[in-house]
Amino acid sequence: MLVNEAQAAAASDQQSPLLSDTRGKHRILAEVKRLEQEARSLEEELEELDRMEKVSSTLEEFLLQVESKPDPLLPETRGPTNSSWEIWFEGPQEMQGCRCWIL
Amino acid sequence: MSFPELKERHVAATAKVNSLREQLKQRRHQLLDTDVAKYAKSQGRTAVNFSSTDLVCSRTLQGHTGKVYSLDWTPEKNRIVSASQDGRLIIWNALTSQKTHAIKLPCAWVMTCAFAPNGNSVACGGLDSACSIFNLNSQVDRDGNIPVSRVLTGHKGYVSSCQYVPGQDTRLITSSGDQTCVLWDVTTGQRISIFGGEFPSGHTSDVLSVSINTSNSNMFVSGSCDATARLWDARIASRAIRTYHGHQGDVNAVKFFPDGQRFGTGSDDGTCMLFDMRTGHQLQVYSQQLDNSDQDAPIVTSIAFSISGRLLFAGYSNGDCYVWDTLLAEVVLNLGKLQTSHEGRISCLGLSDDGSALCTGSWDKNLKIWAFGGHRKVI
């Protein structure tokens, strides 16, 4: 009986593996294509890096650019200043303000 | 192709990708000959010197009955929209602290909100996987509520973040738990482009944040649970322009630097970073030194840059709000340790259009407006 069951199982296995194989193959093929596309992007990026300048080459311009802009939140800043910067301290300074609760 | 041949091809492709990633990492490391702070120090720069009373809380906006999750300023007139766990949006006049609108949301589980550039509409999104648009000039319904004017449906996961394209009231970008970002036409409700998802080079996990470049509104960056940030060109949905590695945890926040050439990130790994958009270089890491190294660093929930970029504001899960000197990579102030600080986690931050005020939103249900109240020296 065990042998018969085994034979029956083997017979049915011959049909279902084909179906699951096809689905599995499609999944793996899609994943392979995704990986190969990623590999191509990474190769492009590597080539780009071969031509790229080091970090230090951009920093002088960066520093000067940040330091040249007027900034109302800094204790020391380039001008020009703007009168709109002071609006938060004009008129009554209510720490609590409108306290109505939305129900 | 046979199954075994296919599997072999898969193994080979995986090995090739891993090898290339390692080569890229090495090559990038060779190009990192310095960082912003080392360079700035070598040029004799010193950190911004704040006295403890320089940045003051000039307004506390009270009214939400739940944690504040998100906020956004209008480009003008100093209005703010905030979204809360209480299932409401509130529109504030930040100058007078008055509430001009309170919108009860159809879905209470809101995570993000945004103001349209013209100030006439607000958008919000959350666990309903949709983005709802409200026209602030519409007639209220019989319950006194502003009706939804448009619902943007299509995401297959929560909407984590939304932002209108600068200068365009009809275009909005959302990020989602479904691993994609979407560019929407608000007037028709249609998706114009989907970034990621089925296409390769998209995020491989939930997207948590998005930031559009104000200098070139075709470009935007997204931050994700896959620990990367990605740069997209809104005209090219098929692939990300660049992927930025470096973080060891979810990238909760991304924000473009004011010059549009760089952007900042904030992560679950407790650090913020500054990246060069064009080259992909990691320019600086902003990291707290912990006394007890066994402690987990508090996570970064939100970031914003001051208008010059000299200051990086970072909200953390432990209630701290560090003000980093971007150039020297030093913490120059902690808004979370002042007498007027929030009493809970800072979940969101945003700068007013002219850069004169910072708004913080917190799990303590309040929003606060911070401005410079000290003596300003003009060079």
Automatic annotation (TrEMBL), chain A:
The keyword Membrane applies. InterPro entries: G-protein_gamma-like_dom, GG1/2. The keyword Cell membrane applies. Residues 25-55 form a coiled coil. It is found in: Cell membrane. Residues 1-16 have a biased composition (Low complexity). GO terms for biological process: G protein-coupled receptor signaling pathway. Residues 29-103 form the G protein gamma domain. Signal peptide: none annotated. Keywords: Cell membrane, Coiled coil, Membrane, Transducer. Residues 1-22 are annotated as: Disordered. One of its GO terms (cellular component) is plasma membrane. Its main location: membrane. This is Guanine nucleotide-binding protein subunit gamma 1. It comes from Canna indica.
TrEMBL record, chain B:
The keyword Repeat applies. WD repeats lie at residues 61-102, 152-194, 200-242, 244-285, 339-370. PANTHER family: GUANINE NUCLEOTIDE-BINDING PROTEIN BETA G PROTEIN BETA. Keywords: Repeat, Transducer, WD repeat. InterPro entries: G-protein_beta_1-5, WD40/YVTN_repeat-like_dom_sf, WD40_G-protein_beta-like, WD40_PAC1, WD40_repeat_CS, WD40_repeat_dom_sf, WD40_rpt. One of its GO terms (biological process) is signal transduction. One of its GO terms (cellular component) is plasma membrane. Belongs to the WD repeat G protein beta family. The keyword Repeat applies. It comes from Canna indica (Indian-shot). This is Guanine nucleotide-binding protein subunit beta. Signal peptide: none annotated. SMART domains: WD40.
